[in-house]
Every structure is written in C-alpha cells, then in structure tokens.
Amino acid sequence: MSIDDTLHKGSYLLYPDEGLADTAWPKDKELALLILNESIPQQMGALLEDIWARADHRICIDGGGNRLYRFGKESSTLDKFVPDAIVGDLDSLQDEPRLHYAQKGTAIHRYEDQDSTDFMKGLLYLDTVLRKGKGPEDCVVIVFGGLGGRLDHTLHTLKVLFYNHQQRNVVLVSEENLTFVVPRGTNRILTNAQVDGPSCGILPLAGETMLTTKGLRWNLDHQPSSFEGLMSTSNIIDDTQISIETSLPVAWTAQFRPKAL
C-alpha cells in the first residue's frame, strides 16, 4: 500500500493493542468521550468504564446526562461516572440528573444558539477545553449513541461526522455498530475479529463516488457507488486490513460486539 494511505485504527481506538504501533493508542492525541441522548445498554458497561478511565474529557450532550444518570442508577455506579460537563440547550436534561451532577462538580453549560444542534454544541465546547496549543485534530472523539432512535437524528449525526471529518477523528459506537468517515483518497482500516464484523458497509453519503476496495468478501474495482445505484451494504470483512480508495468521503460502518466484563 502507498505511504500516503490514511490509517484508521477503528476499534483499536476502543481497545488499543500496544504490541504494534498501528494498533496502539496514538500517544500524541487526547481522548474525549461524548454521550448523546440515547440509552446506554448494560452490555456497553465494560467499554464505558474503560474509555471513561482513559478519557481526558467526559461530556454529556443535553439528554445524555439523563442516560448516564439512569445507567449509573441501574448498575449501582452513579458516583463512578460523573461527567466533566453537560452541554446543550438543556431542553431535555431532567432536574434530578442536573442537580445530582451539579452537586458533584459537573459544569452545566447552556447554549441558546438555535442554528446548531446539541451534538455540534458539544464539539464546539470540547474545543474550548483542549489542552493549550491543541486543536480539534489533536483529539480522538468517541461518541456513545447517535446510531439508534429517530432516523432524522441518526442522519443528522452522520451529517455532523461528514462536516467535521477533515479536522476531527470522530467514531460513533453502539452495542451493534462502529461508524466513522473515510476521507477521499486511499485509506487503510484496521479490523479486530474479536469485536468487528463480520458484516460491514460503505455508505456514499456525500454523493456518487468511485470505489476500489480490498479485504472484503465482495470487493469493488473502480465502481461508482451512490444511493441511486450500487451501494456496498451487507458486505463481509475478510481481512485484518481493509483498503478503500474513494473519490469522495464515505461512511464506513461495521457490526460491533463490545467485549464482556
């Protein structure tokens, strides 16, 4: 592969393997955990605990504070997971979680701007708390939620990913999916058979693109991909490295199985 390939660590950002440089955590990056307004299943508990312990920034996005609070009560870990901040227009944040976290020292930031969504507000807030001299490109953002619930919310979450992909490394994770944006050009995605796949897809959300892939059960060879035509969905991961060459940014999504406690 070309030395100009863009490397995507994928699930190794969630479960780093320090044995190899490619699979190890990028030491020059900060880690931010954002929790959106979707339920946190108990099977995500071990992953939440691990990322929480490693994160430099822990931010709930509006109603995400309710979700974390409910998860904490149900798992008897309420005092273990206290976010640094809850951010948004706060129209969804309930009084009980708000009071609890405020008493624990969580910063509550209300933004009135109606031209940006709570997810966008959370990313903008994150920029203000990065270490001095650091920018958005210096932080990996892991997002819990955003891939379930209302379809319009899911599509907007994907839009935010595409809007930010040139300056931020943002990964959406749920108990079933791992999703991130692959930029135009040649890309190399690392996969871990313990948690990734077997099913995967490449979504041409930015418009018709030309795709060439390696490492999939059904590879593409300079084939156009669009919503009106061919889309590589329900494909199968057949290698530990997937190569994607694309003329426009696309969304990579794969089945995800979080490790148990």
Fraction of helical residues: 10-25%
| Number of E-type strands | 15
CATH superfamily of the largest domain: Thiamin pyrophosphokinase, catalytic domain
Mean pLDDT: 94
CATH topology tier name of the largest domain: Rossmann fold
Q: Biggest β-sheet: count, sense, barrel? A: 10 strands, mixed
Runs in which pLDDT lies below 50 for 5 or more consecutive residues are none
User: Strand order within the widest sheet?
Assistant: 5-4-3-2-6-7-8-15-10-13
Summarize the structure.
This protein has helices spanning 45-54, 64-74, 95-103, 118-129, 151-164; strands at 6-8, 30-35, 57-61, 85-88, 107-110, 139-144, 169-173, 177-182, 185-190, 196-203, 209-214, 223-225, 232-236, 241-246, 250-256. With 261 residues, the chain is of the alpha/beta class. The protein has 2 domains: 29-175, Rossmann fold, CATH 3.40.50.10240; 176-261, Thiamin pyrophosphokinase, thiamin-binding domain (Jelly Rolls, Sandwich), CATH 2.60.120.
Overview of the molecule:
It is an enzyme of class 2 (transferase). This is Thiamine pyrophosphokinase. Belongs to the thiamine pyrophosphokinase family. It comes from Coemansia guatemalensis. The chain is α/β, with parallel strands linked by helices and 261 residues long. The protein folds into 2 domains: 29-175, Rossmann fold (3-Layer(aba) Sandwich), CATH 3.40.50.10240; 176-261, Thiamin pyrophosphokinase, thiamin-binding domain (Jelly Rolls). Helix content is 21%, strand content 31%. Strands 5-4-3-2-6-7-8-15-10-13 form a 10-stranded mixed beta sheet, sandwiched between helices. A 5-stranded mixed beta sheet has the order 1-9-14-11-12, with no helix packed on it. It is globular. The model has no long low-confidence stretch (mean pLDDT 94).
